[in-house]
Amino acid sequence: MIKQARRRVGPGQFVQSDVFQAPFDDESFSVIMSWGLFHVIGTSEDLLRSFHRLMQPGATLSLYTLVSANRIVGNTALKILHRCHQAVPAESADHVRRVVGTHLSIESSYQHGNMLFLTARKPN
């Protein structure tokens, strides 16, 4: 992925690390984008604590994740990903909102089928 990013973006610093032990100082980021991470490793208190540590006061978290829903195709896809060890068991949108909301202020949340789009902010 880093090779692809360098090709697409060009010069810059790219870091691959464990999200739970990210090698950055506290309050290093004004924006964190998490596209597809939560349905792979799960929505956990540890993940949100790590994001919270990295976010500056007033910083934004923008996330997209797959969640369980009353949709046969989407739920089947999530089950297949789980069986292939590519995703954790499907979580509900309410669960994701609840965990994120314990650490950050949710500004917007939109679910379309099995996709949840959420924006939250770290209080000043």
3D architecture notes:
There is one protein chain. With 124 residues, the protein is of the alpha+beta class. Helix content is 35%, strand content 27%. The chain has five helices and four strands. The chain has helices at 2-9, 38-41, 45-54, 72-83, 93-101; strands at residues 29-35, 55-66, 105-112, 115-121. Strands 1-2-4-3 form a four-stranded mixed beta sheet. It is globular, with a radius of gyration of 15 Å. The mean pLDDT is 87.
Describe the largest sheet.
4 strands, mixed
Number of helices: 5
Radius of gyration: 15 Å
The residue ranges in which pLDDT falls below 50 over 5 or more consecutive positions are none
- Biggest sheet strand order reads 1-2-4-3
What's the order of the H and E elements? HEHHEHHEE
Beta-strand percentage range: 25-35%
Cα(first) to Cα(last) distance is 33 Å
**Structural class by sheet pairing and helices:** alpha+beta
Helix content: 25-40%
Question: What's the β-strand tally?
Answer: 4
- Report the principal-axis shape: globular
Mean pLDDT: 87
